[in-house]
Amino acid sequence: MLIPFSAFALLQIVEEYQLKSAFIERVTRFITWPGQHNHNRGKTFKIGLAGENPFNGKLRSYFKDHKIKNRDVRIIAVRSKADIGKCDLIFVSESEKNDLDIYISQSRKFGILTVSDCEGFTEKGIHIGLLMQNKNIDLLINKTSLEESGFKVESLLLDYAKIVGGNNQ
């Protein structure tokens, strides 16, 4: 007898950060980077990890078999302000809360998508939030911040997400 898996059962099997890795890849499918920032920086799509790395190898493992925007993915540590501009996407961890304004301003300057799983970061200007709520991941989007940074977001993604920040609350 076959027993179907519910989303709840699947989430229990799959670790939180494996699921967040997949969310990052899926979200990028519905986002267009700003043209003036020359998003085609090379053959590799670079994901920067700012601060403590909660993925514990899950992100690197996931992207061995997945691409973003038809580009291989490389995971890099963001250790200084100079490293920010080398990325296409930055995951900002809780340990960086005192430098949040730097990541937000640099993301606007260089056309870098910002993602976090920290409560309140999306409301402050991080583009995408991935928050665990009741064993599910809630997708938060700061539409105002994305638009001010020059990103375009497909309506399908906006329909799925909770819009936060700016006039979208």
Describe this structure in words.
With 169 residues, the protein is of the alpha/beta class. It contains eight helices and nine strands. The strands form two sheets. A seven-stranded mixed β-sheet has the order 3-2-4-5-6-7-9, with helices on both faces. It has a two-stranded antiparallel sheet with strand order 1-8. The N and C termini lie far apart (47 Å).
Using brief descriptors, characterize the structure shown:
single chain; 169 residues; disordered N terminus; 8 helices; 7-stranded mixed β-sheet; two-stranded antiparallel sheet; 9 strands; alpha/beta
Helix/strand/pairing class, anyone? alpha/beta
Morphology call = globular
Q: Summarize the helix and strand pattern as letters.
A: HHEEHEHEHEHEEHEHE
**Ends apart, CA distance between termini:** 47 Å
The stretches of 5 or more residues where confidence is low (pLDDT under 50) are: 1-5
What integer value in Å does the Rg equal?
Answer: 16 Å
Largest beta sheet: strand ordering = 3-2-4-5-6-7-9
**Largest beta-sheet details:** 7 strands, mixed
For the secondary structure, the number of strands is 9
| Portion in strands | 15-25%
The DSSP helix count reads: 8
Assembly context of the chains = single chain
Report the mean per-residue pLDDT as an integer: 87
**Helix content range of the residues, please?**
25-40%
